[in-house]
Amino acid sequence: MNANKLLQYVSGYVNIKIEGYYIERFINICTTKQILLWNLKHEDSITLHASVEVKSFKELRQICKKTKCKMKIEGKKGLPFTIKKYKKRKVFILFLILIIVGIITLSRFIWNIEVTGNETINTEEILALVDQEGLSIGKLKGSIDTKEIINKIRLERDDVAWVGIIIKGTNAVIEIVEADKKPDIVDEEEYCNIVSDKDAIITKISAQNGTPLVKEGDVVTKGDVLIEGKMEGKYTDPQYVHAQGEIQAKVWYTSTQKVDLKEVQKQETGNQETKYSVKINNFQINLQKSVPKFEKYDTIETYKKLKLFSDFYLPIEIVENTYKEYEEVVVIHSVEEAKQIGIDRAAEELKEEIEGKEIVNKQVNVKAEADSLEVEVIYEVEESIGVEEKIVF
Amino acid sequence: MRRKARKLDEILEIPVELSTNNPKITIVGFERVLIENYRGILEYQDYFVRLNTYIGIININGFNLNLEEMTTDDLLVTGKIDSIDFESTTEEEVEEEK
C-alpha cells in the first residue's frame, strides 16, 4: 500500500472533481479502459472527488464528454509537478547546487585549530610547531599525517607527556597532557639539611630528625640551615640523617605604591558604537565606515568564527568592533583617599603571595611628597618555611 | 464438459474465485470491504454502493462510503458500513443444472 503511494507520487497524479448525473457510468468506463482511479469520494449526489494518474488524464476528457460530466482539476500532486515548478527557478537550483558543492569542498579543509589541555605551555608555540609540520588553517584534511605530527611534537618538546590530534569536521583539536616538571625529590635514604627559603623570623621549630640550629625568635635569611641532618651522640661518632621537621616563621611581604594626588582617569561616557566587518582568510571587508565619530575611544575587537554545525567551521570570521567613548577626568585625591588607593593597590599586588596564609599583622607607612603619596604596605604572615637540601660531602 | 472441468478444479484445489467467476468479499472490521472479481459499479452514492458481479448484485449500505482503490477487478470500499446484501441473478443457471 505504501509502495503504491510512493509510486503514485513519483509518477504524479491529479486530484479532480467530477460533476454529473452519470457518475457510475463514468467510473465503469474508466475501469474498462483500465484507467486507475482512487480515493473516490462523494461530496453530494452529483459531485465526486477522485485522483487519477497523469498519463491517463487525457482519456478522461473524452469519457467526460461521453457521459456529459464536468471535470475540474483541484490539484496537481507528485514529483513531475514539483520538478516543473523548480524548472522555472534555474538560478535558485544553480545556487543550491553551488552551495552544496561549496560546503562539500570546504568541509575537506581544516578551518580551526584548537589546543586544549595546556596550562603552562603557550598555545602559540604549539601552533607554530604544528604549522611547521603542515597542520595549519586552510590545509587539506587528507594531507595531514597526524601520527607524524604527534611524533614530532613529542620529540621536540620534553614538557609534553602526551599529544593527541583529532580532526572533527573542519576542526582540528590538539589535546595536550603536560608533563609535570620533576620536583627535586631528595631521596628518603639520602642525607639532607632543611634550609630556609625566605627571610623570616622563626616562631616555632620542631625537628623530627636531625639537629635544629636555630631557636625561636631567630632571624634567618634565605639559605640558612635550619635543621642540620647530623646527629651527634654522646657515645657515638656524628651520624648523618635525613633531616625532617616543621618550621613556622613570620615572613614579611612589602609593596610600595606611589599614588599621585592629581590623577587623570579614563571615564566611560556610556556612548558606544558597534561596527561589524567580515574577515575571510585575512581579507577583511568593513561593512560600515570604520572610523567612529568619538574623539577618544577604546576599541574592543571580538572575533567570532562561523560554524555550521558544532564542528564545521567555515573560513569566515565576523569581527565585531566596539568603540567605547571615554573622557579624561582629572581627579584630585585627598591624602586619606590616596592612602586607601595605595593600600588597595598593594593588596592587589601581593594577593597571590599571601592568599591562604595567616596574616598576623599589617603595617602601612605613608610618605608624603609634593604632589604624590608613597604608600608602603607590609604584611606580616605566618607560614611554614624550609626546603630540603642534599648534604654534599 | 462443465462438470468435468469443475471436478478437475476440485482435484487440483484451485481456489473457487479463480476457477469460477464468483466474487470474493473480504470484510476487515466494520469499515473496510474488499471485493474481488466484480464487473462494474451500478450505483455509487455517499450512503449506498451497488456493484455488479458475475453471479449477482452486491449492495453495501452505510455512511461516507469511499472507493479507495479501484482496478478492473478489485474494489476497496471504506466508510461506515451498515449492511451488505446480495441479489442473485443466476437462478436460470441453477435450473439448467437440474
Question: Any descriptors?
Answer:
heterodimer, A: 393 residues, alpha+beta, Ubiquitin-like (UB roll), 4-stranded antiparallel beta sheet, 22 strands, B: 98 residues, Immunoglobulin-like, 3 helices
Give the helices and strands of chain B as they follow along the chain.
HHEEEEEEH
Classify the oligomer.
Answer: heterodimer
Low-confidence stretches of chain A: none
What CATH architecture label of the domain at 23-90 in chain B applies? Sandwich
Structural class of chain A: alpha+beta
Biggest interface and its residues per chain? A-B, 18 and 15 residues
SS content category of chain B: alpha+beta
The CATH topology of the domain at 23-90 in chain B corresponds to Immunoglobulin-like
Biggest sheet record of chain A: 5 strands, antiparallel
* Termini gap of chain A: 97 Å
Mean pLDDT of chain B, nearest integer? 84
Output the CATH class name of the domain at 2-83 in chain A.
Alpha Beta
User: How many DSSP E strands of chain B?
Assistant: 6
